[in-house]
Amino acid sequence: MVGSIPNINLAVFVPALPLLGFLITGLAYKRLKHNQAGIIASVLVGLSFLISIALFFVLRNSGQNAATVTLFNWIAIGNMNIPFAFLIDHLSLTMMLIVTGVGTLIHIYSIGYMHSDDRVNSFFAQMNLFTFSMLILVMGANYLVLFIGWEGVGLCSYLLVGFWFKNPAYNYAARKAFVMNRIGDLGFILGIILLFFTFKSVSFSEIFTQASAMQAGAPVITLITLLLLVGAVGKSAQIPLYTWLPDAMAGPTPVSALIHAATMVTAGIYMIARSSILYNLAPITLNVIIVIGMATAIFAAIIGLRQNDIKKVLAYSTVSQLGYMFLALGLGAYSSGVFHVTTHAFFKALLFLGAGSVIHAMGGEQDIRKMGGLRKKMPITYITFLAATLAISGIPPFSGFFSKDMILTKAFEHNIVLYVLALGTALITCFYMFRLLYLVFFGENRSAEAHPHESPKVMTVPLMILSVLSVFGGFLNIPSLFGGNLSFSSFLDSAVVSKTSEEISSATEIGMIILSIILLGAVIYWAYQTFVRKAQIPSGDEVKLTPLQRIITNKFYIDEFYRAAFEKPFGNLSVFLFRKVETTILDPAVSQIGRATATLGTLTRKLQQGNISFYLFAMVAGILLFIVFILTI
Amino acid sequence: MQNISSAIQIIPLEHYVFLCVTLFSIGLLGVLFRRNTIIILMCIELMFNSVNLLVAAFSAYHSDPAGQVFVFFIMIVAAAEVAVGLSILVMMKRNVDSVDINLLNRLKW
Fold first, then answer.
1. Which of A324, A328, A416, B18 is most buried (CB neighbours < 10 A)?
2. pLDDT digit string (tens) for A311-333?
3. Nearest 5 degrees, angle CA A204-CA A206-CA A207?
4. Could A612 and B102 be called an inter-chain contact, meaning their C-beta atoms sit closer than 8 Å?
5. Of A96, A90, A28, which is closest to residue A64 (Cα–Cα)?
6. Whether A609 and B104 lie within 8 Å, measured CB to CB
7. Of the candidates A608, A611, A616, which has its C-beta nearest B32's C-beta?
8. Interface ipTM > 0.90
9. Same domain, A518 and A437
């Protein structure tokens, strides 16, 4: 299936350009003047995007579905032969276009957003490094190359979350993100090792060719998929490893948009979609994914209801939407999951950038209780934010409607309970998003000191482009119900093998859509009544809450639970080891060995008298002994 | 070569060996027990030359010129060694105004 396609080697430039940008901005960060780093970084990522588009047409004109570009033979030991190769197929092209396209817009936006930061050059170097790693992740032709990118994005996430490292809380958040990702990565690498043991290869094409001959439900496949799932759960912030993502909002807002909304957190979904053949063989794992995804979607959405930090709301919303994508994967609808990744990249990046614009205008204020009335002051931000809110809520014909509707339909086909839960999540999502919108942009300005103003063009133009994508992105994949032909899904079908399920009748489908529109309308009206008409502002900490409200406001005490269950015992164990083992056993042992050596030295140095005659005597005696020794043997 | 060898071979090889062992032992004992550095150096030369003589003798008895080539190398090395040794000796005389080797005992712990 893989032949040589002219010009396909252009693919090498896609990750190479951001790497070049990282080297330029990273090595010369002290010499570059203000803005220069941002322009270099943006231009290089933009070029990468153009090359990705070119690759799209190259692949289309060639009439083939996939191509492998081998850079060099990376590991060759005995029978093991792992090339450093890129796989260019429809799935990786989709991800490349998202990463470079949305990435370019966010880079441009950052020029404005990070304008006054004195470490802006390092910022762009790290952003470019991230883009490079992410491209390696999505382009790798085997699990090991994927893993390099996987670790690379983890590192960049750590660096960028802790970008303002002078604040200890931000540092803590960065460490938390890193450690939680590490837990997932352990599972992931164990999965890769097991894959290698089972298939004697880590290359996608070889594994999938061998696996398609296997029987469904083989225990080893189930174990592999579960281990890979652990990695995906860590990276994509699912229960139980989701708590790092809300804390990762400590990073600059463009970072949240690029890494923690559009690209890195979808790496887990990409990886599962890439391994779709394996997952189709493991029905148990798929059920686990359904449970995890659904639980995360609902759980995070409920927490999002009572958050008062504009970025935290969006963070929980991201966790919830990622749960949605997992649900799609678990239902075997991989292309729907990836489609939701795509539309989510558009509207969630837009939401974060809009939030960044608001934070920028409010002079760093992130508390939505202190905002309000920004609609008049920031019209462009308002309109674009509104478009994204409508898209994420799933209002037709915005992009989120199409992707969510596909997942809801799949859920309905699978199990009515799942459908009800997924629809409930969509309604909660709609409610907290409109709560956010109303509190930020409607009503009166509740902050006396802030003087909001519209952001500069360098920030608003990316917003406008993203809002166009958020509004019209759904038309990529119009279901047959509306006369479309699911072009996006069929585009992906060559790369991912979705499970087929029985189609439901179009009447049911129309009924479901009408039901969800009515419910969404009701929710929006309710939110409007609560937050605009009655102008209910979320209460501060001083007001007494009902127990349920308190639990939700405190995020179900999950962080506290983790602290009590893992952090505290681990800390206590460390203290115990330090006090008892380290100071009473290890330390004395080491110093005793040192002391014994020193004593031995004092004894032997007596021999070194400085007397040459004695040395000569010792030498001759030694030689004689040696001769005697040789002769006796 | 052949004529010389046959001339040398009049004396039995054992004589050479005994002579060389004696010379070597004298040299060795001199190195070990004398305190005068000049004598020590001379004793070292004596040991060198006893070995040279032995090598040359074996070379002659086995009609193998390689041994005699070796002797030349050893002589060159010995000459170099003497040059270094004597210059050390001169410096020693200048610094401590003596050639007693036991005075050089400062190189120690």
1. A328
2. 999 999 999 999 999 999 998 88
3. 65
4. yes
5. A90
6. no
7. A616
8. no
9. yes
Q: How far apart are CA A164 and CA A157, in angstroms?
A: 13
Residue A23's domain spans which residues? Answer: 1-183+240-265
Domain boundary residue, one of A519, A543, A567:
A543
Q: What average pLDDT does the segment B54-79 reach?
A: 89
**Residue ranges of domains in chain B:** 2-103
- Kindly provide the b/e burial profile for residues A432-454, where b requires at least 16 CB atoms within 10 angstroms of the residue's own CB: bbbbbbbbbbbbebbbeebebeb
Position A229 in a domain = no
pLDDT < 50 stretches in chain A: 1-2
Eight-class DSSP state of B98 = -
| A and B: number of Cβ contacts within 8 A | 27
**pTM metric for this prediction:** 0.79
Q: Please compute the mean of the pLDDT values over residues B53-58 and round it to a whole number.
A: 91
Residues A14-41 have pLDDT tens digits of 999 999 999 998 888 788 877 788 899 9
DSSP-assigned letters across all residues of A135-185: HHHHHBSBHHHHHHHHHHHHHHHHHHHTSSTTSHHHHHHHHHHHHHHHHHH
H/E stretch holding B90 reads helix B66-96
Annotation: CATH topology of B2-103: Helix Hairpins (1.10.287)
Q: Please tell me whether residues A531 and A627 are part of one structural domain.
A: no
**DSSP 8-state code for residue A73:** E
| C-beta atoms of B108 and A608 within 8 A | yes
Closest residue by Cα to residue A234 from A193, A184, A296, A188? A184
Q: What is each CA distance from A138 to A16, A97, A257, A355, A493, in whole angstroms?
A: 14, 11, 18, 28, 17
pLDDT digits (tens, 9 = 90+) for B15-45: 999 999 999 999 999 988 888 989 999 999 9
pLDDT of residue A134: 94
Mean pLDDT of B53-77: 89
Amino acid at A54: A
Q: Give yes or no for residue B2 having a pLDDT over 70.
A: no
DSSP, collapsed to helix, strand or coil, labels residue A287 as helix
The residue of chain A nearest to residue B106, with distances taken between CA atoms, is A610
In A, which residues are within 8 Å of B33 by CB distance? Answer: 613
Give residue A32's identity as a one-letter amino acid code: L
Q: Is the dihedral of CA A70, A73, A75, A79 positive or negative?
A: positive
> Is A9 within a domain?
yes
